[in-house]
Specification:
By secondary structure, this protein is of the alpha/beta class. It has seven helices and seven strands. It has a seven-stranded mixed beta sheet with strand order 4-3-2-1-5-6-7.
């Protein structure tokens, strides 16, 4: 069981609030992109976040455009999982492709506050005196997450096949 500090956000946080569209074609460097994470929603996020922290959010996290920086800006700040009541469909796929574990847990965001610590193991989340089951992933999605994302998984396969 590992402990994770949480950063809690509400419903309908769109990709522009996670990573502003004005930076999509101007920022290229990993550090620049990471520094802009959540800047309009939570200007102090990048000062507080630590590797291993987790985002906890309400309904429809990541709705909006398909920009992958809305996931990578969080990943490059050490976020490895996002727990939300629900996800925007494109954002959910981008999480998987980038190796960030999207977990659906409808009630958690109403029970915890930013700075609280939750416990996560392979099948459960423990928070606020309650235990929540983590929905199982398909074997293909689990393989992508285990590899750290789709590109690392494909690169390993390519190398192992002598490509």
């Amino acid at each position: 069981m590992t402990q994770h500090r949480v950063h809690v956000y509400g419903d309908n946080v769109n990709t522009d609030l996670i990573f502003a569209g004005k930076y999509t074609y101007t920022l290229r460097e990993r550090d620049e992109i990471a520094r802009r994470a959540l800047e309009d929603l939570d200007p102090d996020f990048v000062k507080r976040v630590q590797p291993g922290d987790v985002i906890v959010a309400g309904q429809n996290w990541g709705n909006g455009s398909s920009r992958e920086q809305a996931v990578t800006c969080l990943k490059w700040n050490g976020i490895r999982a996002i727990i939300a009541a629900s996800f925007g469909g494109l954002y959910l796929r981008n999480c998987i492709n980038q190796g960030v574990h999207p977990i659906v847990c409808p009630a958690l965001h109403t029970l915890v506050q930013t700075g609280d610590v939750i416990e996560i193991d392979d099948g459960t989340i423990r928070a606020a005196g309650q235990t929540f089951a983590i929905p199982p992933l398909s074997p293909s999605v689990q393989a992508i997450l285990d590899a750290g994302g789709l590109i690392p998984m494909l690169a390993r396969r390519f190398r192992s096949e002598g490509g």
